[in-house]
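Researcher: Following up on the earlier apo prediction. This time include the ligand. It's NAP, with the SMILES given after the sequence.
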Amino acid sequence: MKKVTPKKRQSARKSHQSPERQSLQPSTQPGWAVVTGATSGIGRHYALALARRGYAVLMTGRRRKELEAASRAIAAETGMPVEPWVVDLADAAARSTFLDRVMQCGRIDVVVANAGFGYAEPFVGGPLQSARNMIAVHVISVVELFHRVIPAMVQRRCGALVVVSSLASRLPVPGSENYVATKSYLNSFSESLAVGLKPLGITVQTLLPGFTRTDFHRYDPAFQTRQPASHLLPWMKPEDVVRASLRALDRKRPVCIPGLGNRILAQAFALLPRALVRAIMRQRAH
Ligand SMILES: NC(=O)c1ccc[n+]([C@@H]2O[C@H](COP(=O)([O-])OP(=O)(O)OC[C@H]3O[C@@H](n4cnc5c(N)ncnc54)[C@H](OP(=O)(O)O)[C@@H]3O)[C@@H](O)[C@H]2O)c1
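Model: Understood. Below is the ligand-bound prediction.
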């Protein structure tokens, strides 16, 4: 992962805007970073951090006004080209148009598959479409995106892929069955990719954040009531999560659990007998 001075950033921005400059100064042409779910929270901080590192950024979300404001702010602060792309990743046709745009980027150096949501109607007794949408956003959209971008990375023998999963994916969570299952898919998918792509010069990271202060819980007004003990857990700021992830990416670590408190929790749950973990999670659900 690279670091770029403000002067180089400015010339990189100009080279993106002018084809002539591009051919005159190929070495200053920045590669692209694609960040899904960058309207707010963790994704927005990835977009900012990657633009600061000198990447042109393609950032997605559904809330147009917020996404455009975020991309303008990041472009103004970093001097890099930042493009907002509105897409509902649950919608197959919209995903396909987005993938076409991604493939027009040319050189893609970094992809962060971050878009996601926690709250959905209950799986048991709820509408099937709600579960399908979550599988589309968390799983299908990531599989489609990686399937498109990896071949060029393999050809160039470089690139970085980050998959934003969740610490909760390591637990049985009644009420969030589909959420933790989709994130478990991502763990397995990205760790396997990490092993296979490492010899080809591509770094793949699974990020497992714990509770993070973002817009994530805004759709779930009953969250605090259902999880009264959540305030005892080590909540993190999204910028700290992203800093930990990028530091781990620089060190080519395949798995990142940001925050000491979260790492201790993960270790504790891994050491407990699984029957006890299930009993704890059952208690927590009532
Ligand atoms: N916050 C936590 O406590 C926590 C913990 C563990 C893991 N995570 C994971 O971290 C990732 C980022 O979440 P966050 O905490 O930063 O929450 P956030 O602030 O709500 O950001 C989520 C992003 O995903 C986008 N998104 C959601 N549904 C989408 C859809 N159908 N199509 C396209 N984009 C969609 C949102 O776009 P719009 O808002 O514009 O729709 C937003 O940009 C998620 O994958 C989440 O599972 C979060």
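Model: The pocket of NAP is lined by residues 37-43, 61-63, 87-90, 114-118, 137, 164, 166, 209, 211-212, 214-216, 238 (CB under 6 Å).
Researcher: Noted. I'll compare it with the apo version next.
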